[in-house]
Amino acid sequence: MNIGIGLKQLSLSLPFSDMIPRCTVSWKSLRNLSLIECKLGQESTDNILSGCPVLESLTLYACRSLERLDLRKSLSLRRLEIYHSHPGRELDPSGPVEIVAPHIHFLKLTVYADKQFTLTDVSSLTEAHLYIRINILLDSTAHCFQTLALELLAKLHNVESLTLGATLLRILSLAELRGDPFPTLKVQTLIIRTEFFAQSVPGIARLLQNSPGLKKLTVYMMHGYNIMVPFRNLDQYWGLKYKVFAPSNDSYSMLGCNVATSKVLAWFMELVLRNAKTLENMVVWLRSRYFDDAQWFEEQLQIVGTLSHNNNVSILLKRKNF
């Protein structure tokens, strides 16, 4: 199956169709391959991968049927991105759910936590981006999500740069409240995308404590409806009250209603500095129209200057709308 001599990049989209090469794949020069909404069987996948001897980057977006992705023979592959489709959208599951990729250096996963997911071997990873999606988090399913999140995090313990999504942080907070053991991470650069939810705080604090070599933290702070909004049906999860992780009542208000007097951001940065002892640089991006109050932003800049001076940590505060 030849598609152009010297072809280096290829993107294929076959919605609702089986991808079955009718002959041996021979893409000798292909370096970047993206497969979109393809139905991949194990034999077809092996055929494609064996025919791409210099493949460096592979992206699977909402590809179905393939349960196990074995990349041990893809010696040149360094970058892997996998995006699961929404559960229920397809008649059969969006995969893969097990990855064996000992040679990759970069991994980006966007997975739904309604299924088991395993990283069997990602021993060469240096950079990872992990996003977990959930439709509704209920008491009866919370423990399964926490187990999945901690197992994935443990497999990424050697990465130098780690990016985590907001939902994952909230799941990790539940694991921290439950007393589950967290892996120790070797991460030097941590990027988190979070909201002004008190429920994210325990997980963030534990991540910082378990990252003894952390040098740089980047926070993309997004506005939530209310700092005290609980998980649906989990407001008294294991009998614990989330308000114990929030600042005192007189130092915050619902963002967007009283932004000018809110001290939530300063409280959050102080929490980071208490838990990240080796931190050298922190960048906080405020990404919402609710952070456009000029007076409030100037107040935060003054607080940042004081915190940076007192803790010998370079802190940058930036604004960016969606």
Q: How is this structure best described in words?
A:
The strands form two sheets. An eleven-stranded parallel sheet has the order 1-2-3-5-7-9-10-11-12-13-14. Strands 4-6-8 form a three-stranded parallel sheet. It contains six helices and 14 strands. With 322 residues, the chain is of the alpha/beta class. Helix 3 (166-178) crosses helix 4 (201-209), helix 4 packs parallel to helix 5 and helix 5 (264-275) packs parallel to helix 6. It has helices at 42-50, 139-155, 166-178, 201-209, 264-275, 294-311; strands spanning 9-18, 32-39, 57-61, 68-70, 79-83, 98-100, 106-112, 118-121, 127-133, 161-164, 189-195, 216-222, 281-286, 314-319.
For the sheet with most strands, the description reads: 11 strands, parallel
Using only C-alpha atoms, the radius of gyration works out to: 22 Å
Q: In angstroms, what separates the terminal alpha carbons?
A: 43 Å
Strand content: 25-35%
Number of helices: 6
Task: For the largest sheet, list the strands in their spatial order.
Answer: 1-2-3-5-7-9-10-11-12-13-14
Low-confidence stretches: 225-261
**What is the succession of H and E elements?**
EEHEEEEEEEHEHEHEHEHE
| Large-scale geometry | elongated
Number of strands: 14
What is the arithmetic mean of pLDDT? Answer: 80
Query: Based on helices, strands and strand pairing, what is the structural class?
Result: alpha/beta
DSSP helix fraction? 10-25%
